[in-house]
Amino acid sequence: MDYPKTKISLIILFCFIIFNVKAQNDSIIKLEAANKLTATEIFLSQPAFSTYKDNYFSTGTTLRELPSSDNSDAKFQISIKYRLSKNPVFDNVYGFLTYTQKAFWDIYKVSFPFRDINFNPGIGMIRPFMNKKGKLGYYSLMVEHESNGKDSISSRSWNFVSLNWSEEISRRVLLEAKIVLPFGSKSDNPDLLKYIGYSDLGLTYIFKPQRLYAKINLKTGASWSWKGSVETQLIMKPKESSNLYLMLQGFHGYGENLLQYDKKVSMIRVGIIIKPNFMNFF
Question: What is the pTM of this model?
Answer without folding.
Answer: 0.88
